[in-house]
Amino acid sequence: MSVHVERDKESGVAVVTLDRPAKHNAITLEMARALGEVWRGFRYEDDVRAIVVTGAGGRAFCTGIDRDAAGNVPQPSSPYTIDDPLLTIGPKANDLWKPVVAAVEGMACGGAFYLIAEAEFVVAGQDATFFDPHTTYGMVSAFETILMAQRMPYGEIARMALMGTAERVSARRAYETGLVSEVTEPGGALAAARAAATVVASYPTEAVQGTVRALWSAKEPARTGALAHAPHLVSLGNLPPERQAGLFTGRGGGGGYRIR
After folding, report:
1. Contact call for residues 246 and 165 (beta carbons, < 8 A)
2. Could you tell me the pTM of the whole model?
3. H/E/C letters for each residue in 86-113?
4. CB-side neighbour CA atoms (13 Å) of 238
5. Over the stretch 203-254, which tens digit does the pLDDT of each residue have?
6. Is 13 helix (H, G, I), strand (E, B) or coil?
7. Bridge-based pairing state of the strands 107-109 and 129-131
8. I want to staple 161 with a disulfide (CB 3.0 to 4.6 A). Which of 27, 85, 141, 207 is the partner?
9. What superfamily would CATH give domain 3-189+203-208+218-248?
């Protein structure tokens, strides 16, 4: 299922790895279901007190949903409803309040933001880049933009979302704007994230989870209200699938979005 979980009982840290490096760790429908099961399962694992989420291979953290593997997900006819298989791939969407640290190497784009936005903080290798390809391919960036707007200044998230594949936010710029909390040498993000998670896991569980919940409560009203508008914004603003496919043709790359 291409989602690997490693547990270290001594430190209390688990590492969740998206493991499709040949496809830039793009997420299949099977992986989306597996991630939900992993997060829900952690609620009952008292030995797991902090979690790191990362991508295998170093070239990418995640490039969103794998359109080739997932195919066209049938959508309801109502503009107020949308079936987005990535909506429940994050820990908070699965009612998990154990702290999560994202370790990002390489590309993180599109659907990767469902995971990054639900992490407590992000550690990135120096070569990491963040971008949002939706508008390039005739799609509304609604869910991703709303989620990341809780983590980035308005102008920064607006520029990234509107510029599409033409804009790559570097790890250094992401650090300067607060999206990333630590920049490491290339390849060092996982070790640094694991070290931070080990410190957090060493503290009393109730205090840590209560702090996570308090932090999220500060932004939940705005986030929930904005997400209520997302389905019909996507339904009204997305190009028809056949026109999207035309924009994808010839772009090259693999995995989630065609990466130029």
Report:
1. no
2. 0.90
3. CCCCCCHHHCCCCCEEEEECCEEECCHH
4. 19
5. 999 999 999 999 999 988 888 888 888 887 888 887 877 677 677 664 544 4
6. strand
7. parallel
8. 141
9. 2-enoyl-CoA Hydratase; Chain A, domain 1 (3.90.226.10)
